[in-house]
Amino acid sequence: MSDTIFTKIIKGEIPCHKVYENDLVFAFLDISPLSRGHVLVIPKEPAATLDQLSAESAGALGEALPALCRAVMKATGATAYNILQNNGAEAHQAVFHVHFHIIPKVETGEGLGIVWNTKSLESGETLAASIREHL
């Protein structure tokens, strides 16, 4: 994987407002936030999408995310938040390095807006069986 803006931030080549770092995870304020306190949480491992990430880095992200969510809520006074994570251009991923957005939702309406276009579940058991086979 080639260098992305996130690998350059991790290396210190691009400045950021760091909020958290350990051996495997790095978190910083988004420079184009949807709301005050919008944080990006990234693995130091350079994987483009979540399915390409090692179990070790995935576990470290899973451990860091709840603590970061609590800290963002306390720092901003938000009572709700969204976690957003996109994989692939078709899923609106713009930087091809795994990253999670913590986006505080506040009473002013700032934050992530979502339109949920639901469909009917067709062939549910067949699809579930196929997914289980691939685990």
What is the distance, rounded to the nearest whole angstrom, between the alpha carbons of the first and last residues? 25 Å
What's the architecture in CATH terms? 2-Layer Sandwich
Q: How many strand units?
A: 5
- Number of structural units classed as domains: 1
The order of strands across the largest sheet is: 1-2-3-5-4
Provide the helix percentage: 25-40%
Would you give an account of this structure?
The chain is an alpha+beta fold and 135 residues long. It has a single domain, classed as HIT family, subunit A (2-Layer Sandwich), CATH 3.30.428.10. 29% of the residues lie in helices and 19% in strands. The protein contains 3 helices and 5 strands. The chain has a 5-stranded antiparallel sheet with strand order 1-2-3-5-4, with helices on one face. A hairpin with a 3-residue loop joins strand 1 and strand 2. The longest helix is centred in the middle third of the chain and has 22 residues. The chain is globular. The model has no long low-confidence stretch (mean pLDDT 93).
How do the strands and helices of this protein lay out in sequence?
Layout: H1 5-11, E1 18-21, E2 25-29, E3 39-43, H2 55-76, E4 80-84, E5 100-105, H3 124-133
Antiparallel strand pairs: 1-2, 2-3, 3-5, 4-5
Motif (Histidine triad motif): 97-101
Pfam families: HIT (PF01230)
Domain HIT: 5-113
